Structure formats: C-alpha cells, structure tokens
Amino acid sequence: MRLLTHNYLQSNVKGTEEGYPLGIVPETVEIDKSPVDRELLLNILPKLNYDAVLQAVEQLRPHCETLPNLPSTLPEDLDDELVNDLYFVLFDVHVKNGCLVCPSTQRKFPIRDGIPNMILHEDEI
Amino acid sequence: MDLPSSTADSTTECACQYMTLVPRGLHFAITEWVQQRIPLHQSIWVSESEAYSHDDLTQESTSWRKHSVAVPIGTVHSQTKSDISIGYNSHRAVIWTKPGQHSYMWWQFATAEPASDVPNLRALGPVTALVGSWKLSPFPQRRIATLSEMAEAIHFCLRSDSYRKQQFPSALRIWRQVALSNWKSVSERVRDDSLFVDDLWLASTNTDNPGLKFRISCVRPDDPNYTRRDLIMAVANDLVPSSWTVDLKHYDVEIVLFLKEDDTDPCSHHFAVALALHPYQYLGCHSFSSGIVPPDVAPPYMTLTGIVRLRPSTAQLLLHLVGLKSGAVVLDPCVGIGTIAHECAYLKYVGLGGDIVLTPSLLGPQATTYSASIQNEQQRIAATLIAWDAANLPIRTAVATFGAE
To answer: Which of B350, B365, B386 sits opposite A118 (nearest CB)?
Structure first.
C-alpha cells in the first residue's frame, strides 16, 4: 500500500464519527524507487490531504530511516528536492504488511502483501 | 500509410512502418491518438489530422476539397461498413466517420521513435512491425470468393522479390531489435546473427541452417466459405523461409495476417502481413514470454493464471473515452485483478481500484503477483489495490464520487 492510496482511505464502520485519517501500524515496509514524474505529482497534490501525508510519514519513520523530512505546509513553488521527496513518499514507499487503524474506534484493517482489507463485518455495516 | 518511416537514430540500418489494430475503434479515440495521445510522450509523424462526417465529404464546400492538398492517395477502411476511414497523403491524415457507427480498423503509422520504444506505444491495439500491405483485386467484376482464389492472390504478393528481399527482412530486423532490447528472454536462435541475413530465402536452402520458429495468427471477419485456419494453411509456406519451423508454443516470431474487404471497392480486399512486437507482455502466461498473440486476435478471453480478465486494450480505450487530465483519480469499485487501475499509469491517472475478491483467501495473492510483475517486467507503476465492498466504499469524500474526477 502506498501512502498515496492511504491518503484516500477512511473507515466506514457504522457509527464512526471520524474515520479519517487512518493510522498506520506497519510490520513490513519496502522501498521501490521509480522515476520521478513532476507533472503527475503537481497534478495530484491538490487532491491530497497533506496533513494526513505528514502523519503517515511520521508513523512509518521508525520502520524506514530513509523517509525525508517534509515541511509542515507546502510552499507555492516546489523545488526539485521537495518534488523528489514528495514523490518518493507517495509512490515509492510501500507498506507490505501491517494494519490501518481507525482514529475513532481503533478498528484495525489488516494489510497483507500490500493490499489493505477494508471489508467490514456484518455488524459494522 | 505511405508515410516515410524513420527512426531517431540515423545510424540504424533499417526502419519500418508499424501497424496497430484498433479494437472496436471509436472516432474520438482515434482522433486523439492521431493528434498527440500516444502515452509516454512518443512523437508521431503525422502532422495534421482532421475529422469529418461522411455527409461533409459529399459536399463541394467541404474544406477538405477546398484545400490545395491533393485528395488522399490512399485510405484505410473500417470493417464491412465504412463508418471510420482515414485518408492520407505524404503529410496529412484525414479521419472521417459516420456518427453512431463503430467498428474496428487497422491503423498504420510511422514513428520517429527508436524501434526499441515502439512496444511501449499502446492505448489502441497491439503494435506490429508491418512487413507489407496489398490491395487484392484479381477480378474486375467481383471480389475473391473462395479459399483457392484468395490463396492465389496472396501467393502473388508473397512470392515477389520485394517481399522476400526487402519487406520481410526489413521488418524482421526491426522485430529482432525489439525482441533483444525489450523481451524478458529470447531464444538462442534470436541471438544468432546467421539467421538474420539479407537473403533469408536463399539462406534457407542450406539445410544446416535450422531457421527461426514461428506461428501465424489471422485477423479477419468471419467468412462462411473458409476458416482462418484454412487461410493460414494455404499461405504459410510462402510467408516464411523454408528453413523456419512451426511451433505453436515455443515460437520466436508471431506472424499476424490481416484481411478484410474493401468498403468502397466491391471487387477488392486488403491484405497485410506483420510481425507481433510483444505488445502486452502478457504476464503470468509463460507461453507468451517470447512472443505474444495479440489479445484482440486471440479467442475472446485471455486468461491470467486461469482468471478471465478485461483486455488491456479495452481498458485503454475506456480510459481514453473519459478524457481526463494527468493526475486525475480513476475509481474502479470492482477492479478484479486490477486491469483498469493498472492501465491508468500509462495515461498518468491515479488508479484507485478495489474488489471484494482481493482478500488473501481469494484473488489477493494473484493480484499481488500481477502488480509486482507490472513493476518489474513492464517497468511502470502498478496501482495499489484494495479489498473492499463496492457497496460501502472506504473512500473519503472530496476525492471521488462514484466515477472519475
């Protein structure tokens, strides 16, 4: 699971008041470098919740020493270094195993082989 | 097209044109493709394109006729009904269509990109190296009707010096460049320079030279008079040097035959021969590791480890139809093995896909393997897939409603 994907996910458990952003408890984190696409990144940024990105990065940092330090707010103009860091964080960091945690109910959604399982139980719908 | 073919590398000794099949071709998908929408920033040679309705072309005032540019010197026609056609001359292509009617068509093009990058050209259909194309009109009053008549007409094309000494060797050299630079593995035969000499047919008379292995597939509308297999059997011996041997599973070269009736000329067929350039790098199917049957000419369903799946070409057409911009989020709530979500990478969309069957006990492991193969073998970003219930999407609002942004 990439952090890009994590940014879009929330808990839909019945009765959850605030199911976003989901916490990340990683077991296995892998890095898979890919060529930076600046245009793609700049087009994606307006759709992202940047605070959720920052939170996710900090939750992964104990398991991934190479994570860059990101600014608390994004400047209007992004230099190449920041573009590379953001692209790396969003596209190249993969949580292979672990779980996502609802901030409201603490419900855990397992991640196995990179696929988060967001399927609810019958009593959660 | 009679467009001069070229490569970016002027030292390359050979170049060829390419042909791609447009499955269920759609007017606006073709128009976009002609103008600029080949993914991965590949440039195309055609400098202009326009689209007209059939009705426009019958009017004297149509701008096509007003232009000083001469009328098309050639056309590519659609299947059976002339609903999509392309006219071309040395520097211009015109697309015309009858609204509301669609079909598939061939689309030949020349690109300035190196041959090694051609397999990455996708979005419409499998790209093949064009050996040659011909118009078959042996009878002034009628079309070819029987297998023997068709075979004889094709034999005339294939037994020429032009085919054997220029067209086939040239396309084969391009095919070899692509195979050596793009395919995951090739046989020793493909690496053997002695099998790629200029005069392949003369060399094949040397019985010590075993030649390449090949198979043939045929793209053709259904014909009650004879099957595709009948046609292949009737012309196979003239397609390749005699030293080449048939191997349906462990072949080197996939030869694709294209045959269709001419829409505007009731006495003609169009026939083309091309070499498949490993268009989809179909993952998980080991028999395709050294050459691929283009999914659109194969049986209706291709399987990935036993899973029936959406064809990548169809997924690409769907994504083109939506007409999004880079960075758009495409939501597939029932993504299956992930075809649509993975194809988004070619168009710089963010593919967000999930399915209830992507749990570890169902398709999850196979989806993971497929995603890894896309990353490793195709060297492009694979989408992250999610196991979810489409009736209860775990997506935060302001990202996507049901559909694409």
So the answer is: B386
Q: Domain limits of chain A?
A: 6-124
| Partner A, chain B 314-333, Cβ-Cβ below 8 Å | 325-329
Domain A6-124 class, CATH top level: mainly beta
How many of the other CB atoms lie within 10 Å of CB of B37? Answer: 17
Residue whose structure tokens are 């047919």: B201
Torsion, Cα B396 B397 B401 B405, to 10 degrees, reads -90
Nearest-neighbour CA in chain A from B279: distance (Å): 22
Which residues of A make CB contacts under 8 Å with B? 1-2, 4-5, 8-12, 19-20, 32, 34, 37, 39-44, 47, 49, 91, 112-120, 125
Q: What is the dihedral angle through the alpha carbons of B360, A94, A10, A12, rounded to the nearest 10 degrees?
A: 10
Distance CA B37, CA B46 (A): 12
Interface predicted TM-score (ipTM): 0.94
* Minimal CA separation from B384 to chain A, in Å: 6
Structure confidence by residue, pLDDT tens digits, A2-52: 999 999 999 988 888 889 999 999 999 999 888 898 988 999 998 899 999
Q: Is B256 on the interface with A (CB under 8 A)?
A: no
Instruction: Tokens for B226, please give them.
Output: 């004879």
Sketch the domain layout of chain B as residue ranges.
5-48+103-290, 312-392
CATH 3.30.2130.30 fits B5-48+103-290, yes or no: yes
Q: How far lies A33's CA from each of A24, A58, A88, B212, in Å?
A: 21, 20, 7, 38
Cβ neighbours for B55, distance < 8 A, ≥ 6 positions apart = none
Q: What is the pLDDT of residue B156?
A: 94
User: Does the pLDDT value for residue B330 go beyond 60?
Assistant: yes
- The correct answer on CATH 3.30.565.10 for the domain covering B312-392 is no
> Of B347, B370, B386, which to mutate for an interface test with A (greatest number of A Cβ within 10 Å)?
B386
Residue A35, preceding bond cis, omega within 30 degrees?
no
Interface with A, mutate which of B348, B374, B378, B381 (most A CBs under 10 A): B381
How far is Cα B204 from Cα B239, in angstroms, rounded to an integer? Answer: 13
